[in-house]
Design a protein that fits this description.
The protein has about 240 residues and is of the alpha/beta class. Helices cover about 30% and strands about 20% of the residues. It contains seven helices and nine strands; from the N terminus they run E-H-E-H-E-E-H-H-E-E-E-H-E-H-E-H. Helix 1 packs across helix 2.
């Protein structure tokens, strides 16, 4: 397991998300003051939904959204209007509720006939923004993170974006590579639910990098935000 700068356990998903939102706002303020912009890669799935709702409600005026740029760490290769779309979830829970300029929203394209072309196009857009100030990640029960699934990608791939295949639908995904993720100034893992307990124990104990999440070793800081159900019984605050 790579070095962790912080691992915090909270009673439930809402308190976990509130703590992550507070830290995110601090990072945003510091980045904007230092470099004039804050770049963040959003995560999909259900866990970050609560974080986005808190940001939209409690930080609409506290964060200078005019200088925030939104990217995505991965995307299901479906139309942006599809209910499985990570972009659509972020649009409904966050983007439509904050004063972020549309020019600052950078979704992964899913309209190319060939998803490889979409990955290439997004890599070109992402390259000019690196290193990102913050990347949000989740943890799958198989140890995957973003859309990097065990045994489906080369950990040493030097590209920024790749096409991957999920073991469950939607099958085709586009994901940041470990190179892109590990270049970040900050990475937050958001992990909630009893079903994550077993894999979380394995990730923490993994010294050899058997799981994609274990290979997240950013140049900057790595923080884990856990709820009580995912962290019991062996991981304590």
């Amino acid at each position: 397991m790579n070095s962790i700068d912080s691992m915090s356990v909270f009673p439930e998903l809402r308190t976990l998300s509130a703590a992550a939102a507070k830290e995110l706002a601090i990072l945003a303020g510091n980045a904007i003051a230092a470099r004039g912009r804050f770049s963040i890669a959003l995560s999909g799935g259900e866990t970050p939904r609560t974080l986005y709702e808190i940001l939209a409600r409690d930080y609409r005026d506290a964060i200078d959204w005019q200088h925030v740029h939104l990217y995505w760490g991965d995307e299901r290769y479906v139309p942006q209007t599809d209910h499985e779309s990570n972009y659509r979830m972020a649009r409904e829970t966050l983007i439509d509720r904050i004063p972020v300029p549309e020019s600052n929203v950078h979704p992964i394209p899913t309209s190319f006939a060939n998803p490889e072309d979409a990955a290439i196009a997004y890599a070109a857009e992402l390259e000019s923004a690196m290193p990102l100030d913050l990347i949000l990640l989740g943890l799958g029960e198989d140890g995957h993170t973003a859309s990097l699934f065990p045994g489906t990608f080369d950990p040493a791939d030097r590209r920024l974006m790749i096409v991957t295949r999920s073991p469950k639908p939607p099958l085709i995904r586009i994901s940041m590579t470990l190179r892109a993720i590990n270049d970040a100034r900050n990475v937050f893992f958001l992990v909630a639910g009893e079903e994550k307990q077993g894999i979380l124990e394995k990730i923490v104990a993994d010294r050899e990098g058997h799981y994609p999440a274990s290979l997240v070793r950013p140049k900057g800081k790595l923080a884990w935000f856990l709820d009580r159900l995912s962290s019991e019984p062996r991981i304590k605050n």
